[in-house]
Amino acid sequence: MKNIVDELCILHRIGIRDKSSKAPKIVEVMWHVPSIYQVKLNTNGAARGSSGLAGFSGIFRDHLGQVLDCFSGNLGFATALEVELQAIIHAIQIASQRGFILFGLKVILL
């Protein structure tokens, strides 16, 4: 493939349609360290489609940004809301076991 535009035109002429996916949405996120002696938790969950293959992860960091603990899991099929909630539940269980005190919770659903 030397000239993508020419090749796409040829494919179009013979009836083959392009099924390329849309460009991903890019969101800038700033991470700030927690106050001294506090632990910050960041979680993420994702599902393919409205109800599809789903997984979650999370990370605990101290005021120096050092990783204290992390986790990930697979839910099989779930919605985005279900997987985000599962990530939070799992994180609270780990925080309780490790003796971390979480001062707040901020969830962003994109």
Descriptive overview:
Strand 1 and strand 2 form a beta hairpin. It is elongated, with a radius of gyration of 21 Å. 26% of the residues lie in helices and 27% in strands. It has helices spanning 4-13, 80-98; strands at 40-47, 52-61, 67-78. With 110 residues, it is of the alpha+beta class. It is built from two helices and three strands. A three-stranded antiparallel sheet has the order 1-2-3, with helices on one face.
What key phrases describe this protein's structure?
110 residues, alpha+beta, three-stranded antiparallel sheet, 2 helices, 26% helix
Brief rundown of the structure:
With 110 residues, this protein is an alpha+beta fold.
According to DSSP, the number of beta strands is 3
- Largest sheet composition: 3 strands, antiparallel
The percent of residues in helical segments reads 25-40%
What gap, in angstroms, lies between the N and C termini? 36 Å
Tell me the strand order in the biggest sheet. 1-2-3
**Count of individual helical segments:** 2
Taken in chain order, the helices and strands follow as HEEEH
How would you state the average pLDDT, rounded? Answer: 83
Strand content: 25-35%
Shape: elongated
What structural class results from the helix and strand content? alpha+beta
Poorly predicted runs are none
Kindly provide the radius of gyration, computed on alpha-carbon positions and rounded to a whole number of angstroms.
Answer: 21 Å
